[in-house]
Amino acid sequence: MGKYNENIADESIWLTSTPTQTSLTLPFYVTEAGHFYAEHDYEVNRDSHDSYLFMYTLKGCGLVTSGETSVELPLGSAIIIDCHNSHSYSSQGGKWEFLWAHIKGNEIKSFFDILYPNNIFAVNIRNPEKLITKTEELISKINEKGVLNDVQLSAVLHEIFNTLIEDSLRTEQEKSRIRYSEFVEYAVSEVHKRYSQIITTDDITADIPLSKYHFIRVFKRIMGTTPYNYLMNYRINNAKIFLRTTDLSVSEIAEKCGFSDTSNFIVQFKKHTDQKPLEYRRYFLS
Length: 286
Known about the structure:
The protein is an alpha+beta fold. The protein starts with a strand and ends with a helix.
């Protein structure tokens, strides 16, 4: 169910596409897309829609709401919203020209969750010409048929997602690095110095003047993983070197790499490499 005031100019483009059997197996496919010249009173309100919606503002400004979060979408910015939740979008303060596409696919939720680990926000696009070209290519090919076209459209959608993720992460990481880089660098250095000891996340963050949970979020956004997982990966990587370059026993390597006992080391090593330590060693000695 929804309420619509689709007041758009005649030169607007609005195309729909019925997915093929091939499309349904791909990471991404598009069900409809367009280039809208929306009037000042343009507005769409929906309880739900079975897709994700990409929008990029060419002129003017839009106002996008998903759930309880409202975001302005000014010139040069893009957004993707999960239309399975209640949502709305409208012109903000005048006419609004924008490109858009409703997207589905096997991988879209995973990419959406990477882009927005918390609430949605407008992404400022660093190379707008490239994104505009890709989106216009998508719109132009939406009704072409054939397996090759399905695959190419999926690839274009993948590029669009990658652009949004890259630009959003770069912007956020730059801000975070200015504020928190010294804390993240300190935690990384603590891991490198103390990985052979029995340490916890609390030990790593003990001298950092942020709450543990706030710092974990900051660290993950900058480094792509939590402090604990970074520590575990660093231990496993060092264990690999010991296994390949020394004759130390598994228990000795476990101790050198900070594991509390050998059995825990074996479990963690197999979890991260799909091999037990001795299997890993034999593989590189064979």
